[in-house]
Here is the input.
Amino acid sequence: MLKKLLAGLVIGVCLMSFSGLGLSQEAKVYVGSKNSTKYHYTWCRWAQKINPNNKVTFNSAQEAKAAGYIPCKVCKPLMRD
Ligand SMILES: [Zn+2]
Here is the structure.
């Protein structure tokens, strides 16, 4: 009885933290490279190829655009926020 309750609690907490993480990754942070003019979602395979020394991060698409970056055609970061 108690075990079942605990398991439910653990699953609930895991789900909550997982969805929270997904949201913040998707909506908030974009990355680009000093060597290119594209910006990406952090999960994009191209974003993961960026050399950490050349990595630049943006808090919004507008910020990236203001810096002269254009959206990646693979992960298609949104322009609206
Ligand atoms: Zn991309």
Notes: Helices lie at 2-27, 61-66.
